[in-house]
Write a structure and sequence with these properties.
With about 325 residues, this protein is an alpha/beta fold. It folds into 2 domains: about 1-155, HUPs (Rossmann fold, 3-Layer(aba) Sandwich), CATH 3.40.50.620; about 185-319, Elongation Factor Tu (Ef-tu), domain 3, CATH 2.40.30. It has helices spanning about 30-45, 60, 75-80, 95-100, 105-115, 135-145, 165-170, 175-185, 200-205, 295-319; strands spanning about 1-5, 15-20, 50-55, 90-95, 115-125, 150-155, 190-195, 210-215, 220-230, 240-250, 260-265, 275-285. The strands form 2 sheets. A 6-stranded parallel sheet has the order 1-4-3-2-5-6, with helices on both faces. A 6-stranded antiparallel beta barrel has the order 7-8-11-10-9-12. Helix 7 (about 165-170) runs antiparallel to helix 8. The relative contact order is 0.12.
């Protein structure tokens, strides 16, 4: 999949194309419904499929106080988009000047002049241009005079429209089942392993702490069954994906104040992961974060958490 980060990078020989646009935060099942129509139409017509997306999120520029938590970083988003079968992604920097374009200016610069669009596939809620005045009908009208046709894809979902907002709400509430259902995969965060307090090793449960910039939305505080993936190891390598009990919270038993994401790889005390890039995938929430009256009840609960984690992940592997 080609990735272009400006209009100037798009080769003249690319077009005509089949195009869509959106933030695609999370690349959830609703997004993939649109992308599926896009790639099918592109295959039928023998044209490249291209998604246009933005970085940063428009609200982070226009109303930063209201900007939503990002479900995925740009790198995560691009990796997920590649998995949909797209031929290319155009990443446009979202600025106030960019936001001031009229729908006509945006369509002419991006769809017509740069991508030579023959068809545009969009979801029913698509908005674009200054103050989001552009709609699907705007695209239809512009396409009639500029030589492309428009395919609208109706909203999809069970129990409501699948959306990034619903995923954020579910993760913030610790509702991992709903978040996983809408995403079509376990929620995930990526980061680098750093030194923590080394308290887990003293308790018999050494953990890998994420530090620095963590990519992806962290779910509600609690203990989760999940997987640690060592991103620097190749697919299929031994010890690349490991069953893990993941903790999110402030360690209230020890009066902690810093929210952390850390995981204990089941039955492994031999791993040295410091400095490695890893991912945590959250499979099931086992319990909320609790404050214990001392170390002994905490350790007893940790043994119970590990037993539950082993049962949950073992049943998944056996399916």
């Amino acid at each position: 999949m080609h990735v272009w980060r400006s209009l100037d990078e798009i080769p003249e020989s690319l077009g005509p194309t089949v195009v869509t646009l959106g933030n695609f935060d999370g690349v959830h099942r609703g997004h993939r419904a649109v992308l599926g129509v896009l790639t099918e139409l592109a295959a039928e017509t023998g044209r490249p499929s291209v998604a246009v997306t933005f970085e940063p999120h428009p609200l982070a520029v226009l109303r930063p106080e209201s900007a939503p938590a990002a479900l995925t970083s740009l790198d995560q988003r691009l990796r997920l988009l590649e998995g949909t079968g797209l031929d290319g992604v155009l990443v446009l920097e979202f600025t106030r000047d960019f936001a001031a374009q009229t729908p006509e200016e945006f369509v002419d610069r991006v769809f017509v002049d740069a991508l030579h669009a023959a068809a545009v596939v969009v979801g029913a809620d698509t908005r674009f241009g200054v103050r989001n005045v552009g709609t699907v009908q705007t695209l239809v009208d512009l396409g009639a005079s500029r030589g492309f046709h428009v395919v609208g894809v109706e909203d999809v979902g069970e129990g409501g429209r699948w959306s990034s907002t619903r995923v954020r709400e579910a993760l913030a509430a610790g509702d991992l089942d709903t978040a996983t259902d809408i995403l079509g995969r376990p929620p995930r965060v990526d980061g680098t392993v750093v030194h923590g307090d080394h308290r887990g090793r003293l308790l018999g449960f050494p953990t890998a702490n994420l530090g620095g910039a963590i990519e992806g939305m962290i779910p509600a505080d609690g203990v989760y069954a999940g997987w640690l993936t060592r991103l620097d190891l190749p697919e299929g390598a031994a010890d690349r994906s490991l069953p893990t009990a993941i903790s999110v919270g402030t360690n209230p038993t020890f009066d902690g104040t810093q929210r952390r994401v850390e995981g204990y790889v089941l039955d492994r005390a031999d791993l040295d992961l410091y400095g490695e890039r890893i991912a945590y995938e959250f499979v099931r929430r086992l319990r909320p974060t609790l404050r214990f009256d001392g170390v002994e009840p905490l350790v007893a609960q940790m043994h119970e958490d590990v037993a539950q984690c082993r049962a949950v992940l073992g049943s998944i592997v056996a399916e």
